[in-house]
Design goal:
Layout lengths: L20 H18 L1 H28 L4 H29 L7 H34 L8 H19 L2 H4 E8 L2 E8 L8 H41 L2 H20 L5 H61 L3 H4 L4 H10 L5 H13 L1 H16 L3 H9 L1 H21 L1
Antiparallel strand pairs: 1-2
Length: about 425
């Protein structure tokens, strides 16, 4: 037997005596409880992600649905939030149970649903991020060409969901109850089922998923690199042609002209009206230019927000992919971790790193989108203060401040509807 095929020596008993099956089962339970305490930081970590993801993605769905005008970004962001909610409601609780029970996870159906949910939501999110990157590339790099409309957006979402289903359905056949024998007792875990564990299908499935994810990440990196270069070039051009030295003489000359119009009655009325018309045209052009610059700034800000969402998605999967490569390259890699508790806890922790993007996305939206942040505050105020008299008095006292902010929010919403 090759040395790499040997599982580490992990004895349950050190007294060199024969023990009954019941004693072995009791010892396994004690060992499982002890390892669960060591894995408590990982369990608490993904539990915090669950709470943040549930509340944050629910707010994203509610606020974007109720308060934002129809746009491509609205549909994409809401779809991502729905996939993250799937992870938070189904996958993360099942993963917490899998973390808790290393030897007694005897629920193959729960295991299949969990792996199906993770595979589906991850693949669908990758597809949506590809559609988002394509949409932002067309808006930034080709702004004068035809842009993605509502119908094409919904079609892209449908294709992402359909493709994710095609990729993830084999998980229901491959995953289930993985068993092994310890001191004559059969223990079970959530992994590739015993019926396929010694076949080539698990490796093929993992290889296909890895290749698709790496390809998607490569395309995302290329698209956003082109977008960043385009934004950088546009910023340099705008800085070159919007120098304040050019604008000041024009303004001073207009002021001198109006002083002359007001002080000298001998000026011809026709020439005066012509100057006023020219001034109005210039003011109109300046206003249109200001609106165009404002819309462009909102578009760039939205692109940066979605770029950060994509970056978090990619970075959160790096530890998972690295551990999967080690797991498939080293024989008995996962079993041997039970002999090194620190390595085992770190492995269990970083193997769930991809859940980070399910909780972080709403935080990114609130940081970059002022209207989303304000609407979330208003929504939470209505939910928690709907039946309290103190809240009603507080809202009444703040009413002038809220009314003062209404025009700015409405203006931002109109600009967002144009740019998004």
């Amino acid at each position: 037997m090759d040395s790499s095929d040997v599982i580490c020596d992990h004895p349950l008993f050190t007294d060199n005596k024969n023990h009954t099956i019941e004693e072995v089962k009791l010892r396994l339970s004690e060992l499982e409880d002890r390892e669960a305490i060591m894995k408590l930081p990982a369990i608490l970590f993904i539990g915090i992600l669950l709470l943040i993801g549930l509340m944050g993605n629910f707010l994203v769905c509610a606020v974007y649905h109720l308060k934002f005008p129809p746009s491509t970004s609205k549909y994409f962001i809401m779809t991502l939030a729905i996939f993250d909610l799937l992870n938070c409601t189904i996958a993360i609780p099942a993963e917490m149970a899998d973390l808790r029970f290393d030897y007694h996870f005897n629920s193959p159906d729960v295991c299949r649903v969990m792996r199906l949910t993770i595979s589906f939501s991850t693949s669908a999110s990758a597809g949506i991020l590809l559609a988002i990157a394509t949409d932002r590339y067309r808006k930034i790099c080709h702004p004068f060409e035809r842009q993605m409309n509502s119908r094409e957006t919904k079609l892209g979402i449908f294709l992402a969901i359909f493709g994710a289903l095609m990729v993830s359905w084999p998980a229901t056949l491959l995953y289930g109850r993985s068993t092994r024998i310890i001191e004559g007792v059969r223990v079970a875990d959530c992994a590739f089922d015993d019926s396929v564990r010694n076949t080539c299908y698990p490796q093929i499935y993992i290889a296909i998923l890895t290749a698709m994810c790496l390809t998607s990440m490569g395309v995302l990196i290329v698209l956003y690199t082109l977008i960043i270069l385009r934004v950088w070039k546009q910023k340099k051009l705008r800085a070159r042609f919007q120098s304040p030295v050019i604008s000041e003489p024009v303004n001073s000359s207009r002021c001198d002209c109006f002083k002359k119009l007001n002080c000298f009655d001998s000026l011809d009325s026709r020439s005066a009206s012509t100057e006023v018309d020219i001034y109005n045209v210039d003011q109109s052009m300046m206003e249109e230019k200001r609106k165009s610059n404002s819309n462009q700034n909102h578009s760039v800000r939205t692109t940066l927000m979605l770029l950060l969402v994509t970056a978090v998605f990619i970075i959160s999967f790096i530890p998972y992919f690295a551990l999967q490569i080690l797991k498939n390259a080293v024989t008995n890699f996962e079993q041997n971790l039970h002999c090194n508790h620190v390595a085992m806890v770190a492995y269990k922790f970083f193997l769930r790193s991809f859940f980070i993007n399910s909780a972080v996305n709403p935080i990114i939206y609130s940081f970059f989108n002022t209207q989303f942040r304000l609407e979330c505050k208003e929504f939470l105020k209505r939910v928690f203060c709907s039946r309290g008299s103190n809240c009603s008095r507080s809202s009444d006292s703040n009413e002038p401040i809220d009314n003062a902010n209404v025009p700015e929010v409405t203006k931002y919403q109109k600009a967002e509807a144009t740019v998004f």
